[in-house]
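In this supplementary section we document a worked example of the pipeline. Step one takes a protein sequence of length 458 as its only input; no multiple sequence alignment statistics are reported here. Step two produces a three-dimensional model, which step three serialises into structure tokens for compact storage. The input and output of this example are shown verbatim.
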Amino acid sequence: MTATLPPSEPSYLTTARERVKQARAAETRGRVVQLIGLVVESEGPLASVGEICRMESPRHDQSALAEVVGFRNHHLLLMPLGELHGIHPGCEVIATGAPLRIPVSDELRGRVIDGLGNPIDGKGPIRGRQMVQLNLVPPHPLKRQRIQDVFRTGIKAIDAFTPCGRGQRLGIFAGSGVGKSTLLGMIARHAEADVNVIALIGERGREVREFLEKDLGEEGRRKSVLVVATSNEPALARVKGAFLAMSIAEHFRDQGKNVLIMMDSVTRFAMAQREIGLAIGEPPTTRGYTPSVFSLLPRLLERAGAGERGTMTGLFTVLVEADDMNDPVADAVRSILDGHIVLARELATQNHYPAIDVLESVSRLTRELLTPAQLDLTSAAREQLAVYRKNQDLINIGAYPAGSNATIDDAIARHEPMRRFLRQGIADGLTLEQTWSALAKTLAPLAPLKAATPTKSA
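The serialised model returned by step three reads:
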């Protein structure tokens, strides 16, 4: 006799069951007593840090959501998640009893949502059967899979010189206007990921549609989830947008998928947290950043990586002020991540795209991901580029006499072929085999000489 399985519960019943579980038997209420800058101060209700409260104004028939971010003199400090128009002293503040929760499902692929999970692409609501919180904990350090497999980005300069593994986290460091968004679009389009989760945090509103249609393209958009929190959004909404993107990526990773999460940019995430910290009275430290910024960065970035099932590879852009690679946020992020890719303004001004400075870029897993033969090729290429850069001034002014040094002569002969190898069109995506074959051809006469002296990777 064959046992029959009970029929699965319809999705609308599951959703209703979740709502009943979250419903509160009684409401606790307070009232707004003060609003200064970004912070609403209320007398009551009884609520904890991270809990969402609803502020209602019967006078204007308006309401707004806010999160509890601190306490002062037995009053709650609330940070709004939206506009505060119509909120006045005496408005009711109602505790929801829970932090912000967002529905997630496979229907998110191909959609564009805001920092609170609301669709903004005009394609209707997103049905989700699973509600997730935004502030989840990173995977257990002893249960993470080891990073052993190469993650193909399709970008020659990255795959050959700064190899990325499945579950690795890399930072892309650059000043403004050097090509970060274009590089992210190229990777999203050509990378081998099953799902892309792209967070545009603090970006200009004009750039969102441009990124969608120009940089990402229809091919990349079909397998991508975009979380958009533009610069005009409240600071807390921008911070929540970054954590929402992480929660969505974790949802797909836990299904066993190969997920790529990209965030542009971590610097604007840090600036949003700085606004929140200064508003609630935190003391400013280096360049005005508050201590909470540097405690929040690892809580965000450590959530990326390999899990018990599936992998989540992370690419995080860092907007460096005045091209200073040692500003506080850049320094903190570089110490957390597993490598960094540097985009140089000098290369961008020479129409060299992607403007990746391979000598300044480092992957901490190079030796675990490349074969000995590939390491020899990369070492030979790095040596050639380093020799040319060291003697570039002499070469450019004609002070170096040809034939004086065989190593410098080789570097000069290979300089233009290497530049051609490192350049790549936006629509061009290469397999790993094509990348290594092209590099081998570029260094064919030199590789045997350099194989015995590989450069030690960081």
